[in-house]
Amino acid sequence: MTDATALVADLAQRARAAARILASLPTAIKAAALRQAAQALRDAEASILAANAHDMATAAATGLSAAMLDRLRLDSARVRAMADGVAAVAGLTDPVGTAIDETTRPNGLVLRRVRVPIGVIGIIFESRPNVTADAAALAVMAGNAVILRGGSEAIGSNRAIHAAIVAGLEGQGVPADAVQLVQTTDRAAVGALLQADGSAGGAAIDLIVPRGGKGLVARVRAEARVPVLAHLDGINHVYVDASADPLMAEAIVRDAKLRRTGVCGAMETLLIDRAYGDAAGLVAALSGAGCEVRLDDGLARLHPDFPRATDADWDTEYLEAIASAGLVDGVDGAIAHIQRHGSNHTDAIVASDASIAERFLAEVDSAIVLWNASTQFADGAEFGLGAEIGISTGRLHARGPVALEGLTTYKWVGYGTGQVRG
Q: Class assignment of domain 3-229+389-415?
């Protein structure tokens, strides 16, 4: 057994013991613990920011991209938002114990499906230190223990955030092992988490949630023996139909791309109906707002001085102020393009024609589809879910923003009066 395997086996064993306690904690205790954890984050702001400043300096020196640096950076506002997010989770409806449905069989046996915690969840993420707080809050409220493995670039920030959260939770009697941080930056620990199905000794991890780039997700898919809740690229599209209101289209396109370029909900590709009245003006407005726009042949005739889009551009998540843009033949062309190049994350249509919009919403098979709204709404808080673990782009268990309900499963509970099958 390697050192990393032994480390993860120990973490999982302790997490399993904590998960048994969490599963039966009353909502009021979990909520009080999260409120205290939120206050502990506010009180620790200075130490968190100092640790983050060190991480930022190291990351910049090693050449981390601008998009990743933006995800890594913390300031007072972001720390306060992190704490507010934890407190908000405390006020959400606790899903544990909720009856999903109930049926009475002809023999009088009552069967009920009831939400229960998943158990032990491993979360592997890059850059974003706020994931430490979001994941801890959601896992605890849903009755799960969580093992967090952040990227090496954020190790100081994650340690400071984790220490504050655990101090707050312990103050209300939640075991410290309910939220554990993998303290080593050795990449072997990631492999050990992915293999922790219980076969190598120690308790099993019940679910792995990766949050990061293509390299991380590819490794998770290739190596995992534990079930995975995947978050793939956010190759998100905005399609502007011929029926779109021009002012609305411009506002949505600019926001979808440029509000925050480094988030997974940012638009990466703009699709414009050939019949739209002012494609040249829409592209010019996006460019004028500070975005490099790479054009297909059709749009390049309108803006010959703009860079051309290559085949690779249509499959690229830029996470910076770059977008690809092309003309399509109506909603059919937009849907076909998204089917070829999309990542099933978030796609939007801007249209005044309701029948066209409804076709788009029905036929685009993404976790989130929007009509006349920016793709930047792809966020658990904006959906009223509080914090989120991530946006699931898969088709099973949970889809879209994964929050409290996404971190539960269910069991069948039967109530009989002496029934036998005989």
A: alpha beta
